[in-house]
Each structure stands twice: as C-alpha cells, then as structure tokens.
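Notes taken during the Thursday session

The instructor put the following on the board and asked us to keep it in front of us for the whole hour. The protein is DUF6628 family protein. We were told not to look anything up and to reason only from what is written here. First, the residues (148 in total):
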Amino acid sequence: MMTTIPTPHAATVASALPYAMPRCRNAQLALFALRRMGAFGLNDAQVAHGFVGAFGESFRRPLILMRVLMAELADTAALPIAIAPCCCGRVTPAEHAVLTALNRADTAPDTARLLLADLLGTRRIDGVLASASAVAQAFADAGRPIAG
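Then, after some discussion, the predicted structure tokens were revealed:
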C-alpha cells in the first residue's frame, strides 16, 4: 500500500514565509549570510566564499561586520529568530525585519531601531543597531548597497 505525504496547506506556508525573496542581489547576499551563519555558525566557509566572490579582495570588512551583527543578534535576542533554509525562495518575518533594518539603518535609524527592538523582544538594542549600520555601510562602501 502506498501512502502519500501530506503537503503543507498553502495558508500555512504563506503565514510562515509571507515575504518574497528580495530582488536586490546585495540583500540576497546578506540573507544568505544570515541564514548560513544562523544555521552553521559564524565561521561558515560558504559565507566566506560568497563574500570573496562578491567583494573580491575587500571581503574582510563586510564579512567580519556580518559576523559581529549575527553575534549581537544572538546575544541580545530575548525571543527566537526564525530563519528559513538557504534553498527557500521565501522570507520569514524575522529575516525581512533584519533586511529592512539593514536597508534603513543609516537613512531611517528610528525605523530600524523599532524593527530590531520588536524582533529581539527588548528595547536595549544599541549594539545591534550599530552593527547593522556598520554592515550596511560596509556593503555600500564596496559598491553593494542593500536595497529593500
């Protein structure tokens, strides 16, 4: 007798992954780093390889700052941060909040502060906001600004 594995209901998938993959290649790179480092640790070789390919010889600054941001997120979070697998073509609300915060860290810091505070479940997010701003600036300085 053959059994079928039930597929998740479309409403369940839509509620868990409500956002489309960002179109900006730089935001996709930041999302890739967020997912890989969140799942496999700060020293993930695939993230390092991706940053070398994207930034060339100047990969160190954005890579180290991304590691700092991930460490700050993990250290500060009072709530779980949901991340999807790297192969997933949709984005979780938590991932969307981080990407939006990276996009607005320098242009709309109050918005970024509120997004990160809500995501992390705490109001003391100065270190995380500073790290997000540094990551956004490192990407922009390398000619790869993170767009929303």
